[in-house]
Amino acid sequence: xxxxxxxxxxxxxxxxxxxxxxxxxxxxxxxxxxxxxxxxxxxxxxxxxxxxxxxxxxxxxxxxxxxxxxxxxxxxxxxxxxxxxxxxxxxxxxxxxxxxxxxxxxxxxxxxxxxxxxxxxxxxxxxxxxxxxxxxxxxxxxxxxxxxxxxx
Length: 152
Prior knowledge:
By secondary structure, the protein is an alpha+beta fold. The longest helix is centred in the N-terminal third of the chain and has 14 residues, at 3-16. The chain starts with a helix and ends with a strand. The chain has helices spanning 3-16, 18-21, 84-95, and strands at residues 27-28, 34-40, 43-51, 55-63, 66-77, 109-112, 115-124, 127-136, 139-150. The relative contact order is 0.17. It has a nine-stranded antiparallel β-sheet with strand order 1-2-3-4-5-9-8-7-6, covered by helices on one side. The chain is built from three helices and nine strands, in the order ααβββββαββββ. A hairpin with a 3-residue loop joins strand 3 and strand 4 (55-63). The chain has one domain.
């Protein structure tokens, strides 16, 4: 499996799960975790997270049933001046723009009306870390840290 194949699968998986269906597509597991799953060919993607504000999660990609890639993330809505649902609706729109070159979260930046999304990431699909934020009317309302990479 090449990095390009892994990255292309990640883009498809991320667009098909939280970025498209959000909480509606989740199932609740024993212990309270929420989970979204996507499969294509020999690949399987699993996104599990706990909590809502703040929340902490993990994405794992399996290839031929073996874990080959993972990402951990932790985020929260940091402002009471906006509705969480509005923040997450904008976030899902941004996550639809995930790219093969940086298949972690959303694009470097995206602006719609009063909303701004910013994502900075260092590294590549093999090893990376990053930060994303959402601003509403130039005030930070959401913050998330993430890191991960290939699993041997």
